[in-house]
Every structure is written in C-alpha cells, then in structure tokens.
Amino acid sequence: MIAQTLLLFGPPGSGKGTQAKRLEQVLRAVHVSTGDMFRDHLSRRTELGLKIEHIMRAGQLVPDTITNEMVRERLLKPDVALGSLLDGFPRNIPQARWLEVFLGSRGFGLRGVIVMNVPRNELIERLKGRALKEGRADDADVEVIKRRLDTYEAQTAACIGFYESVRRPVHQIDGVGSMETVTSRIVSALGN
Ligand code: ADP
C-alpha cells in the first residue's frame, strides 16, 4: 500500500491544528505540523530555534531551505509510511513544488488538500483569545496576527491554485461551527 499524504490548509486561527489532531485518529495518519516543530525548537533553544526565533516572532515565514530540510527529515521517518497529515506545509508555491518532487521520489501519494475557510474578522478574534489562553508570542500582537493573515492570503492561498492546476483534489471546508461539526464536514468531503 502506498502511503497517502493529506494537506491541511487554512489561515492562522482557522482550527487546522485542532482538526489535524482529531483527524489523526479518524484517518490513522501521522500529524506533521511545521509550526509545532518550530515551536519545539524554540522551546528547546536548539541552534535552529535560535536562528528562527526573530522570524517567527515577527510572523514571517521561515526560509524554505530550512523548512524543507526539516520536513524532509520528518517524512523520512518510518512512522509516516502509514500516511501523514501535513499541517502548515507547504505554505508557498516553491514549498509545494518541492513537496511534489519529494513525495514522487518516495513513491508517496498525495490524497488531496483540505482548505479550512473562516472569515478574517472571526480569525482575529479567535487568535486574540488564543494569545490569552496559550500565550503564543506570535498571537499576542494584532499587527503580527494581521501579517500572518496577509502572508497566508498572499502566498499560501496561491498554493491552492497550484494544486488545482496539477489536478489534485481540493476540498473547501466551512471552518465555522463546533469542532465536531467541522471534523465531520472534512470526513464526509474525503468520502470516509
Ligand atoms: P499559524 O498558521 O497559526 O500562523 P503555525 O503554527 O502553522 O501557525 O506556524 C507558526 C509559524 O511557524 C509561522 O508564522 C511561521 O513563522 C512558521 N512556519 C510554520 N510552517 C512554516 C512553513 N511551511 N514555512 C515557513 N514558515 C513556517
């Protein structure tokens, strides 16, 4: 059986991470979150963590060479042979092209793309709430939040067009509603 990869797209605050954790169970796929991996480097103060700290705090994208290499190492681990759920990667077209080549070279299939849609004003409210609850430095400042949303709209949303152009299934999901409702929308879009 070939390992299938599912991509989860959505702006910051759209609930991607939450849904990825829930889908991990349903789909029996390994959740790979580049944001979580970078935050882990930050908290362990690794060499990589120190290098990316100012970039993440400013709400900017970590350079592709660093990100792609970290993803490559992760996707070479044996557990992803079951299938993986990528959350936060790719985030721009060069990363998407890199991933196509990488998956092809490993003989992994790309099952499709899930796009979570939530209106911008609701996203800003959710992220301000998350800053209070979880204390994420990049959620604390409204200007940084807006920059991350702009980066998503300018770069990440373009990846969706890329996947449509290479004829990968793209499932648009309404991300407004309870956690359970959104999970079942995703599961039914995937035909599970
Ligand atoms: P969010 O989608 O809520 O902004 P993430 O947890 O996915 O949060 O990512 C947090 C930060 O980690 C991003 O703002 C960015 O600095 C960095 N990051 C995560 N994934 C990538 C990626 N694929 N490419 C570049 N930077 C990334």
In summary, what is this structure?
The protein has 192 residues and is of the alpha/beta class. It has helices spanning 16-27, 34-44, 47-57, 64-75, 93-106, 120-134, 142-165, 179-190; strands at residues 4-9, 30-33, 84-87, 109-117, 170-174.
Descriptive overview:
With 192 residues, the chain is of the alpha/beta class. Helix content is 58%, strand content 15%. It contains eight helices and five strands; from the N terminus they run E-H-E-H-H-H-E-H-E-H-H-E-H. It has a five-stranded parallel sheet with strand order 2-3-1-4-5, with helices on both faces. Helix 1 packs across helix 8 (179-190) and helix 2 (34-44) crosses helix 3. The model has no long low-confidence stretch (mean pLDDT 94). Adenosine-5'-diphosphate binds next to helix 2 and helix 3.
Overview features:
single chain; binds adenosine-5'-diphosphate; 192 residues; 8 helices; 5 strands; globular; alpha/beta; five-stranded parallel β-sheet
Q: Topology of this protein?
A:
Layout lengths: L3 E6 L6 H12 L2 E4 H11 L2 H11 L6 H12 L8 E4 L5 H14 L2 E9 L2 H15 L7 H24 L4 E5 L4 H12 L2
Parallel strand pairs: 1-3, 1-4, 2-3, 4-5
The protein binds adenosine-5'-diphosphate.
Spatial gap, N to C terminus:
17 Å
Report the structural category.
alpha/beta
Strand content: 5-15%
Q: For this entry, what is the oligomeric state of its chains?
A: single chain
Count of helical regions: 8
Mean pLDDT: 94
Count of strand segments: 5
**Major sheet attributes:** 5 strands, parallel
User: What is the C-alpha radius of gyration, as a whole number of Å?
Assistant: 16 Å
Report the bound ligands by name, code or SMILES. adenosine-5'-diphosphate
Q: Percentage of helical residues?
A: 55-70%
Which sequence of SSEs, written as H and E, runs from N to C?
A: EHEHHHEHEHHEH
Unreliable sequence segments: none
Shape summary: globular
How is the largest sheet built, in terms of strand order? 2-3-1-4-5
